[in-house]
Amino acid sequence: MKDIIEAAWENRELLKDEKTLTTIREVVEKLDKGTLRVAEPNGDNWQVNEWVKKAVILYFPIQKMETIEVGIFEFHDKMKLKTNYADLGVRVVPNAVARYGAFLAKGVIMMPSYVNIGAYVDSGTMVDTWATVGSCAQIGKDVHLSGGVGIGGVLEPVQAAPVIIEDGCFIGSRCIVVEGVRVQKEAVLGANVVLTKSTKIIDVTGTEPKEYKGIVPPRSVVIPGSYTKKFTAGEFQVPCALIIGQRKESTDLKTSLNNALREYDVAV
Fold this sequence. Notes:
single chain, alpha/beta, UDP N-Acetylglucosamine Acyltransferase, domain 1, ten-stranded mixed beta sheet, six-stranded parallel beta sheet, 5 helices, globular
């Protein structure tokens, strides 16, 4: 399968070949069932299966636009919607939408929200109201994506690594995590934290600041911050993220964001 996808990626004329079309559709079906992933844990690291992501991208040009009617609602798109939620053991509140090719594990709750093709959402996770899970994003077990959270996808523009939110994380309201950032196990992001690959993530808990980019260490408690940067026109404040402490072992993994931040006297 990998060889066929890689060949079609280099030569789009192969999208006229029936074997290539069948393979692309098989990959997307396996993504939908969770038997194949764009990225998967490998010890403490993650292995990115870039060829699988390429298959997702190649799926778009081989699909035809069609009208989809769901009750009084009408859609016009190339992608089917995910179905059979009762059999999957997934709770889906009206106005929540997941595309075919996204995997939702048993016990996932979708409030009115959106999960895109290629995404993987593991068991016990809540995708709260108006949260979005972008294409190919990897969301772990028992994660809470709060209201309005934006988890970026990797289709536009093409990027090597998806966003990864590991088990037990709490992502606060209106947070944005994009460009393949990895939030490690049980971390807490306070409301409005924005993380891109270039965002400075500064640990200010010690006597000297420690800087990260693209990764939030396990159990970190993170809030929005800023630092001074010199430009030709003068000095200005640039957004960053501040690690202000560690989530305590005694804290219930399902604690509210408020309680997690109040331990550090942060108003929410």
